Amino acid sequence: MSDRYQDLVHTTVGKFLVKNLGLPNPPRLERYRAGDPLVSGTVLVGAAPGSTLGTAVPDAFSALGIASTDTLAEGEKIKGIVFDATGLATAADLDLLQEFLTPVLRNLAGCGRVVLVGTPPEDAETPGRAIAQRALEGVSRSLGKELGKGSTAQTVYVGAGAERAIASTLGFLLSPKSAYVSGQVVRIGTAGTTEAPAFDVAAPLAGKVALVTGASRGLGLAMAQTLHRDGATVVGLDVAPLADDLQREMAAIDGESLVLDITAPDAAQRIASYLSERHGGVDVVVHNAGITRDKRLRNMKTENWHKVVEINVDAPQRITSELLDQKLVRPGGTILGVSSIAGIAGNNGQTNYAASKAGVIGWVNELAPRIAPYGLTINAVAPGFIETDMVKTIPLTIREAGRRMNSMSQGGLPIDVAETIAWYANPGSAALSGNVVRVCGQSLLGA
Q1: Same-domain check for residues 149 and 278
Q2: What is the pLDDT of residues 87-107, one digit of tens each?
């Protein structure tokens, strides 16, 4: 759906109004296009004394084709900043972070990226280190709200031994693929393996099979298209009323169509049978299918509560259990859920939806350590305000509030959620599990 306000502010009159009235000023976000370099510019790299990443960041950049430097000429523009903060061991050490960032932030180009890399605070051996490492989140979340011009800031915690598993995450967070992701915390190597294989940057999913539910339109279609772009064979699933749309869209990406209702008593068995017979298994399972049935709890009908919970979280859990029981998710495979900021912050009139999406987070947290011994991972995305067809039904004032109440002052696009899914699905992300990353432009709602 077109954002007319965003179009207005980029006109001469709109720029005048924004400047003089202090109105929201949504920037034009850069987004990745197939064939583009991951980063169109240079990334400045710094490190605190005693940091542990060593050559891991330069080596990752070399594999990703990202240009980097540790020195900055006066007035030189940079596209990203990475600071290795693993050496920060006391509250006083945080001065080193400020002294590095303050002089160079003005050199950050529009739609730039800042990534702070630390060690998990929960693994700190001293109070001082726990303080310094947890403080990184406060810096990146505040910085994401300060930078403007479409720029973002994130914190990445790297578990002991996972230093060589950072490439896919750096590639995602420094590139236009993360256009609508800001103020987030990512953990690598903290819920399973600390290793990740090398991958083809252009086609990381070549030879892989991906199942995407709710694939005929909206977020699911964007996910299917993006996974196909990255080399996967996609099996798209949707309900019978959308069969024509599903078959048309899957044919366009050389994918396959599976028409069924995921809440049917035999749905899990039918999905497992299809994947087993056609492909001998599956590598990526994306549980995107979902519905809303909004009402305040005092007016909620039991059938509407049940249906939302059943489709959004119960069916995905049952399907995944069947696939795992039959050992159809191949080693190195990943399960991906779709949560929502409603599941984190709540939302008026969406108690059923928020319950289901918070349930997705609980499921991810519980399953991650259980499947780690089998070389499998599970993560989730939590979209905020995304410009889909559903937006058209939202009243104007609520729609505009959803668009403007984030650091980007605009809604996201389905591709923003799809790129996050593709990052999780990348074999190079094998050391990521148990993560829930919000794709919300750093919404002012929630944590």
Answers
A1: no
A2: 999 999 999 999 999 999 999
Same domain? 265 vs 182? no
Q: Residue 20: inside a domain, yes or no?
A: no
Q: Can you tell me the distance from the alpha carbon of 204 to that of 421, in angstroms, rounded to the nearest whole number?
A: 13
Active-site hit among 32, 180, 353, 424: 353
Mapping DSSP onto H, E and C, the string for 95-130 reads: HHHHHHHCCCHHHEEEEEEEEEEECCHHHCCCHHHH
157 is annotated as an active-site residue: no
| Amino acid (one-letter) located at 24 | P
Containing 259, the helix (H) or strand (E) segment is: strand 256-259
Q: Which two tokens stand for residue 415?
A: 């591709």
pTM for the predicted model, two decimal places: 0.96
Chain segment 200-249, per-residue pLDDT in tens? 999 999 999 999 999 999 999 999 999 999 999 999 999 999 999 999 99
Tell me how far apart the alpha carbons of residues 329 and 371 are, in angstroms, rounded to a whole number: 11
Q: Phi/psi of residue 76, each to 5°? A: -70, 135
Residue type, 45: V
What separation in angstroms does the CA of 256 have from each of 13, 216, 253, 259? 49, 11, 9, 10
